[in-house]
Amino acid sequence: MNDAQTLFREGVLALKERHDVAEGRRLLTESLRLNPQNEMAWLWLARAVHDPAKRLQCIERALKIDPSNQQALALRHKYNGDGAQVAAVTASAITEAPPAGRSQKPAQGNALTPQEQQHIRQLFRKADQLVEQGEVEDAIEQWVRVLEIEVDNELALRHAVGYLSRLKYIDDARELVWRALEAGTQHPSVYLTAIDIARYQQNYDEEDLLCEKLALLPTVDDSVIADVVDKLIKTERFSRAEEITLRALETHPRSQKLLKRMGDICQDGGREAEATHYYDRAARLGTRTREGREADQKLNERAVLLTDSERGSVTLAWREAAGFGVVYLLLAWQDAGMNLLNIGPGRLIGVIVAVVGGYLLVTATSSPQQQPLAKLLGGTVPDKSGRAGKQTKPVYEETTAVGMVEEPTHIPMIPPALRVVIGLMGVAVLGVALWLTFGEAITLLLNPLTPPDLPHISDYLMD
Amino acid sequence: MALFFVFLLLIILQLFIMSFIFPLPITDTGTVRYRSLPWMTMLLIVVNSLVFILWQAANLYQGMAAFEETGSLRMLDIYLKQIWTYGFRGSYLREGYSIGAFVTFTSMFMHSDMWHLFGNMIFLWTFGRRVEDACGPWRFLLFYLAAGMIANLGSELLNPSTVDLPGVGASGAISGVMGAYLLLFPGAMVNCLWGLGSIIRTPLVVIGQAAGIRHLEDAPPWRWTVRVPAWILLVYFLIKDLIPSFEVMQQGQDFGGVNNLAHLTGFLAALFIVLFVRKDLAVRFFSGRSV
């Protein structure tokens, strides 16, 4: 096991020789944990951190041990001269809590003064110049200063966190992000960055918490939530993904992305009825988007929902009856010698009667829940043991084995006995219509008339 | 038994010849939404087959054998009279002969020979199942009959010829089913027997796999069937009927053979399919969602 001094030496070597800042900082922190009275270690650590507040904390700690340390005094003077404030906190707070006493403002909080805005612009310009010169660490310092003015400045945070992460200063990056979060930022990007860091550090509890907070942000775009959900699904954390999606759907009820993902989650969980419900909701919002098309495609792989508005539609029932009308009109047309002018009133009445008969038959069979007809005829809402909400095993499978699913119904259905009566009436009316429209053909069917010009096979053979 | 195998071999050979240049659809792919057993399609195939086998085939094939052996024309004459009595002729409807307008139905279930029946039934099987699934069996039957009637009416009314030849076959009704399939499922893929297509496909797959096209990673180099987009196939059949139909409309058709005009008008009957599909499907169709 290394002692404090060895760790200190190795830390200094890492910084000086190998320029490995992350490793140097780790070794120095470890050394100080074993021997917090090494003021030189504090000073080296001050060089290994990029947050000015942390840096000053390290210098103060060194001065506390040796108030006459010239190097520490010079450093404090340098950093105080740059305008940074000395944080009166203990060194142990460096990696645990953000420094107090700052005048940081979240963007959604107090508005920035023109002077502050001007200062931020200057800092950004300086940071850009430093990046161009390859002075990344100094550039980070400029962005951090921006964050001291505006704690959740997205641009500064993105740059600072990005470069800190590349330099392996994950803890520092995390701290910057969390300062913004604790200041109540409403920027989804800050949450997403925090989620990435938490995941990188394998802190899944923190990640969960952040995901939930993100999903509930009123400002967050549904595609951001969808990304979070996708990541959770990818890591097979389905229950969490479902919980977050459901909560997000409360604020984004018409989000195709979320509805489609909710459908996916339900499908993966084997809950076909629920999956179909969500896919259907997504598809109904339109099929011009990718999610809409995918949801529609998913629906295409299973039986679709028959909704109450479709069940209760009188128009759709008459549409089917019109099909009978077309068939009977064709019969009448042929029966009239293929001359529409010869159809006559009898056959025309037959066609109309056929439509009425068809409507009765349709009402009894495929549309027994037409509203308000079903209610007027004393219908009741079918219970769940009936057809509604039932999931049946497919009798004929083509490629996928997804069961038929129907949405539970909440509208009354014509009583079964009455349906039988209406159905029989429909059949009888259609029979009458057949006689009216196809009477001549029926007469000929009963008494066929041999055609006079039937050829003999020998006629062809002679040809 | 030997005869059976010879017969089977002949069918395979005929299929190969039929499907070498032009694709012969044998089944559609993809999911069937409602997964109802397509018993009406099966029933129609059975009825068509039984009508031919039990009623017509003996007269035709035994009659041909009898003619060759003994010179007897009796059975062939019966077969001819069946076609002329129960096939669709305009004069029967206009002048009230035979069974009048009922010939529109009898003609739909009659076929001139086994290959006529076989060709029609394979198309009915390919496209009928999914259309039946979209309609439900009874509405599908109504649509099938309506399409057959429209095909018969169209072929009679649009043909200026005065030669009143009888028309038989389910192809008009089946054309309606194909048209409905085109309207409802244009994006579906159809498995086709297509010798030329299979031969062309093989080098394309091999080159694609060598080029690292992910879509082709698991594709077998050789397949007996080729997947063709339904809309391409159906538009091809439509165009195939279109030009001869216009010729018939201009000049009339005084001879037998394929009734392209009936196919075309049957195809157009598909416009009525929206009256026969399930109600939720109709709503999806009109709202632009896939059915």
Q: What does this entry look like structurally?
A:
The complex is a heterodimer of chains A (463) and B (291). With 463 residues, chain A is mainly α. Chain A has helices at 4-16, 21-34, 39-48, 52-65, 70-81, 114-132, 136-149, 154-166, 170-182, 188-200, 204-215, 222-234, 238-251, 256-268, 272-284, 290-300, 308-311, 314-335, 344-364, 373-376, 416-446, 457-462; strands spanning 391-392, 404-405. Chain A has a two-stranded antiparallel sheet with strand order 1-2. In chain A, helix 3 (39-48) runs antiparallel to helix 4, helix 6 (114-132) packs antiparallel against helix 7 (136-149) and helix 7 (136-149) packs antiparallel against helix 8. With 291 residues, chain B is mainly alpha-helical. Chain B is 65% helix and 5% strand. Chain B has helices spanning 2-21, 39-70, 74-86, 90-95, 103-108, 114-135, 137-157, 171-184, 195-210, 230-251, 260-268, 279-286; strands spanning 24-28, 189-193, 225-229. The interface between A and B is large, with 63 and 60 residues.
Strand residue content of chain A: under 5%
Question: How big a fraction of the residues of chain B is strand?
Answer: 5-15%
Helix-and-strand structural type of chain B = mainly alpha
The coarse silhouette of chain B is globular
- Distance between the ends of chain A: 113 Å
Contiguous runs where pLDDT drops below 50 for at least 5 residues of chain A:
82-103, 385-404
Q: If you average the pLDDT of chain B, what whole number results?
A: 89
> Overall pLDDT of chain A, averaged?
81
Shape category of chain A: rod-shaped
- Rg over alpha carbons of chain B: 21 Å
Unreliably modeled segments of chain B: none
